[in-house]
Amino acid sequence: MEEIYAAKLKKLNALKEAGVDPYPAKVPRDFDIAELKNNFKKYENKKAVSVAGRIMAIRGQGAILFVVLFDGTGSIQAIIKKDEMSDADFSLFTETTDIGDFISVTGTVMLSKTEEKSVLVLKWMMAAKSLLPLPEKWHGLQDMEERYRRRYLDFLMNEELRDLIVKKSKFWDVTRNFMKEKGFLEVETPTLEITTGGAEARPFKTHHNDFDLDMYLRISVGELWQKRLMAGGFPKTFEIGRIYRNEGTSPEHLQEFTNLEFYWGYADYKMGMELVKELYVDIAQKVFGKTKFEYNGHTFDLADDWQEIDYSSEIKKQTGINIEEATEEEMKDKCNELKITYQGENKERLIDTLWKYCRKNISGPAFVVNHPKIIAPLSKLNPDGITTQKFQPIIGGSEVGNGYSELNDPIDQKERFEAQGKMIEAGNEEAMMPDLEFVEMLEYGMPPTCGFGFGERLFAILAGKPIRELQTFPLMRPKD
Q1: Per-residue pLDDT averaged across 279-285, rounded?
Q2: CATH 2.40.50.140 placement within the chain
Q3: CATH number, domain 155-306+364-470, options 3.30.930.10, 2.60.40.10, 2.170.130.30, 3.30.230.10
Q4: Mind spelling out the 3-state secondary structure of the chain?
Q5: How confident is the model at residue 428 (pLDDT cuts 50, 70, 90)?
Q6: Which residues make up the CATH 3.30.930.10 domain(s) of the chain?
Q7: What gap in Å lies between CA 63 and CA 443, rounded to an integer?
Q8: What are 227-248's pLDDT values in tens digits?
Q9: Sign of the alpha-carbon torsion through 98, 100, 105, 107
Q10: Is residue 123 within 8 Å of residue 107, measured between CB atoms?
Q11: Which pLDDT score, from 0 to 100, does residue 138 have?
């Protein structure tokens, strides 16, 4: 590597000695390569056409070279012929360029003898001289850590990965357009909070120097803030934004990711389920061009009828445990019997652990409903007074969203916050922080509301990839 670096540095100095700036602010470029190739007949035989890109391959020798240029929109062949440019220009190219350099070429648009769309170069210009070599084309970056650490090279050498990042952008575009077409107003809510609300997760802690105040990065996309908007006269809102959870990493979990949350005044969870089904099918068709997928051994079709699965009944069906009657010791014994690792010994965490074991066996598409009150502190109760009007879509053995008929009874909400507060005192770092100002808002009155949220996990499952693989720049430990 040191020898390669030294050789490239020598070429850099040769450019400077020739009076060439190896890193100019601008180079000739009339349009991107995709524009040229997609409208080739329009530009064919035109002279003095300029395109630019990174050199991805050089073949040939002597008086003619064939160079592949890539600019992110496409690739094109540049033909470097000695008799088509000045001797000085040709020599400078052969003596100073390498695979990995960015160059601009100006010449005649033509088809090569092999019918390949090309530019016959009349002159060229260095755009940015590379000092380190690219990975080999056919082997690329094999080590996963190196792929994540040098993500820019991973994108450059891996067309499938680039396409997935483009698809991910379309995923959120389709989502945003769907919500707006349904009359929802896009809003922004705080990402720094005094108390975290809207989910049960361990937060990241920070400090506000001006206020001398400890604060938290949000763990939901403004759930308690969007509900305040419901009270303030905005009946349909949504936000797409980043959230932060100081938890473990897995194929389906990250510490920082993008979520959508919407809140719909005068709607209940049944209406929410119908909207979510429509949204998920819209995403599948417009982003992936299909509704049938395979993931983690499961096959599911989002266009099928979505079954409703009772939370407690499904746990009893798969494990034999009646969560309404079982003691914590009985649930721990069952976890041990099933070889399930559980964290925390309170009833809420044990119930959730058993559910996660059962969920993996459900292909979907389905909604799990009738969650116990203890694990849905922001959801309205069903008439039985025990279960809640919460719903979670499940596909491929995974939950891909969370919604409810939102609790708007201030007395009930205060009692549930107090129960969550006791969990925090008992050492549960994922319990929801009480927010008494939110309770005050409910005392002024909030209309019946359905709220729902989902995140990047849905995209990862539809793409059939681990969620970390689909991050543009996954978090990495610094090198020693």
Answers
A1: 98
A2: 2-134
A3: 3.30.930.10
A4: CHHHHHHHHHHHHHHHHCCCCCCCCCCCCCCCHHHHHHCHHHHCCCCCEEEEEEEEEEEEECCEEEEEEECCCCEEEEEEEHHHCCHHHHHHHHHHCCCCCEEEEEEEEEECCCCCEEEEEEEEEEEECCCCCCCCCCCCCCCHHHHHHCHHHHHHHCHHHHHHHHHHHHHHHHHHHHHHHCCCEECCCCCEECCCCCCCCCCCEEEECCCCEEEEECCCCCHHHHHHHHHCCCCEEEEEEEEECCCCCECCECCEEEEEEEEEECCCHHHHHHHHHHHHHHHHHHHHCCCEEEECCEEEECCCCCEEEEHHHHHHHHHCCCCCCCCHHHHHHHHHHCCCCCCCCCHHHHHHHHHHHHHCCCCCCEEEECCEHHHCCCECECCCCCEECEEEEEECCEECCEEEEECCCHHHHHHHHHHHHHHHHCCCCCCCCCCHHHHHHHHHCCCCEEEEEEEHHHHHHHHCCCHHHHCCCCCCCCCC
A5: confident
A6: 155-306+364-470
A7: 83
A8: 999 999 999 999 999 999 998 7
A9: positive
A10: yes
A11: 47
Q: What is the pLDDT of residues 64-113, one digit of tens each?
A: 999 999 999 999 999 999 999 999 999 999 999 999 999 999 999 999 99
Average pLDDT, rounded, for the chain:
93
- The predicted pLDDT at position 137 comes to 58
The structure tokens 């690329």 sit at: 140
10 Å CB burial of residue 465 (0-12, 13-18, 19+) is middle
* Residue whose tokens read 């009985």: 330
Which tens digit of pLDDT belongs to each residue from 430-439?
677 778 899 9
Query: Distance between CA 361 and CA 297 in Å, rounded?
Result: 10
Residue whose entry in the numeric block shows the structure tokens 């990839």: 465
**pLDDT tens, residue by residue, 297-352:** 999 999 999 999 999 999 999 999 999 899 999 999 999 999 998 876 788 889 99
CATH topology for 2-134 is: OB fold (Dihydrolipoamide Acetyltransferase, E2P) (2.40.50)
